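We were asked to recover a plausible sequence for a given structure. The inputs and outputs are reproduced exactly as logged, with field labels preserved.

PROBLEM: sequence recovery
POSITIONS: 89
GIVEN STRUCTURE:
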């Protein structure tokens, strides 16, 4: 199953929180953050490179609709950049 980035957040905590909102819809998710090891597993603050929320490719449309109140969905081919407030948009 291929996972694709749906949003980027300024911290792993934010990405995990939004990801767990998908639990009630049985939508799996993965949070990736390239520098989380620098700060350790207890790090909950902003990360210089942000944290990526990824969902299965075949669930992207459903997730975009569910999360419109939380994040701005990425446009086709758009690279997600962490924003100062957390969510993209």
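RECOVERED SEQUENCE:
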């Amino acid at each position: 199953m291929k996972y694709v980035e749906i949003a980027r957040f300024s911290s792993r905590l934010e990405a995990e929180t939004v990801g767990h909102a998908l639990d009630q819809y049985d939508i799996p998710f993965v949070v990736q953050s390239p520098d989380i090891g620098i700060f350790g597993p207890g790090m909950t603050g902003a990360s210089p490179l942000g944290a990526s929320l990824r969902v299965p490719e075949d669930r992207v449309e459903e997730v975009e609709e569910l999360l419109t109140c939380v994040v701005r969905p990425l446009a086709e081919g758009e690279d997600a950049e962490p924003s100062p407030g957390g969510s993209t948009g």
